[in-house]
Design goal:
With 733 residues, this protein is mainly β. β56 and β57 form a beta hairpin. It is 2% helix and 42% strand.
Length: 733
Amino acid sequence: QTVTVTGVDDALVDGNIAYNIVTAAAASGDTNYNGIDPANVSVTNIDNDSAGITVSAISGDTSENLGTATFTIVLNTQPTNDVTIGLSSDDTSEGTVLPVSVTFTNGDWNIAQTLTVTGIDDAIVDGNIAYNIVTAAAVSGDTNYNGIDPVDVAVTNVDNDTAGITVSAISGDTSENLGTATFTIMLNTQPTSDVTIGLSSDDTSEGTVLPVSVTFTNGDWNIAQTVTVTGVDDALVDGNIGYNIVTAAAVSGDTNYNGIDPADVLVTNVDNDVAGTAGITVSAISGDTSENLGTATFTIVLDTQPTADVTIGLSSDNTNEGTVLPISVTFTTVNWNIAQTVTVTGVDDAVVDGNIAYNILTAAAVSGDTNYNGIDPADVSVTNIDNDTVSPGTPAVIVAPTALHLEKAGDTGTYSIRLDVMPSTGSVTVEVNFDDQSLRLNGASISPLTLVFTDLTPQTVTVEALLNGQPRKRINHMIIASDAPEYIGLPINHVTVHMAAPVEAAELPPPPPAKLCFDMTFEIEGALRSYIPLDRFDVNCRVLVENGNYLTWLGGTLTHSGQIGDQTVLDEGVVQAVDVFSPSGKTRFDGDVVICLRGSGSVIYLNANQAPRVAQEMTTWQTSAFPGFNCVTLYEPGTVVMVQSGTAAQSAAAPSVPNAPAITELAQCHVTTTDALRLRTEPNANSEILATLPPEFRQRATAFVPGWYRVSYDHVVGWVSAAYVRTEGVCAG
């Protein structure tokens, strides 16, 4: 009988194993057989196990969209010890693997473990990239497994990047009111080189674009760049117009981007013009005009394009304050939208009239275009700034009379002083300076006397003579304090006190003929030189005394106490004397008249408008134009007398000719004080102060020496520092 022996399988790598088929002792009723024990049969079981690691194929590709794929690992046979296999990616920029290792025991060695591979995203158009999941050599205490290196797993990461340029939708419409709209541009993927995209408008009469190009780098490729489109205005009723912002083909060293042409952007420019809305725009005036011939400007422009020329006339409603040029403007179908400038010039007057408002009248338009014909633009309001101050002949503080006659000690006289305008606030304080050795004022024998005014009530000053036989004395007035700003620095007339009795005027013969002062300037040996501006009316002169010689007429001398009106002038010794007068009916000259007399004595002025005539010492100066002459400035007709006595010079303090600085005569110069400024007898800071000029006082300067200008103020001629005035015209220095 055949006995079949079958090998038994196991999962161990245990080699060929010998074993026996044991034949037991026979059991039989046949005693011959019973108990016989046949020989055992030796058998070898051939081992069919071999250590190994099985790695399955990958389930598919990974992708840059983080797509995954899987594979499995399992041992081929049961290990005697744990078996660990490490796992990694050879390109982690394309894919990663989890877990990073697997371990098999003798209990789970035949259970396949799953590995997951995940694709990694990038922004580069780099195509499908192959990479490997590396399976490391097994680590185990089972020598059959230790060191076995399973096969690596090949994987492909599918690229999800495509080179492209994304242009956003426009944010809205542009408009002819220069309204803007925006859109953005951005690359879809990271380039390997800079990418530049040009931008332009296909209709720049409707819209423009900025910037004109955008450039992306591999660092900012994914940052959207904003493009601004601005509507362009026209004057046409053309409705809403569509146009395009053209995006040029990209220029780049990256072949994936070079030549890509993004989509153009469609824009609509909204029209702001309405048919028939003709209009004329007149701008605001640029400022005030001024009596210094200061100008201001404004512009005129049409709102829409006319079909025919449009003419607008221009005029001033007060040509005493301002004039306008041009006197009309004309717009055509070509220049209608170009603003035309109109210039307004202030007109000067000699009146303290304050700042005067006036208008530039814009006449109704004249045009063959019925939409424009008859449109009357808005007039333009202008203010002409006054440059005139209070006239020297009209002081802000009134003194009357300005001359007193006190024959002997103990005689008294009075004059009044008052404000002519109520002060705007507080009080005005006037200081009265006098010779307290010869005079007493209001019982006070110490100078100065102080008067305070709060309203228009006149204050009386009583003057008492203390001595006999005194020369003329001057009582000076000065504002030393004022709460009211309009009174600060204003001049006040002085009072002359004559210390001898007035002489009655004698019966005079008819006056001799007189000449023009200007003509007498050219008499070589004559006593007179003069300067009279060409814009003045004729001023006449009659010489009474020439070089100490008393001239005669009809058998009598021209100069005597009745003629002069003050015997003390004759007593001082007359060197030269001349009557200066204007045509009949004129009590004042139109401006300042300069009279120069030959010699170096003191000069007295007797005003022809006063009765009795009042003698006033004058400040004199010299000019290189008339060497050897002393000059004075007159504003009213009268008699100018040069005396040889030094008595009269006590008040005048005229400078001597040898020490006088070189004088430059001026004909077209005006100065304006920048602050309260002292008027001095001589062009130096140590000379006598005649008056204080207020700030912004404007007057013609008649002469210049280095650092000083000669001006007249309140009938007094003196010098002011050039450091504290602004100049206009032709001025030296």
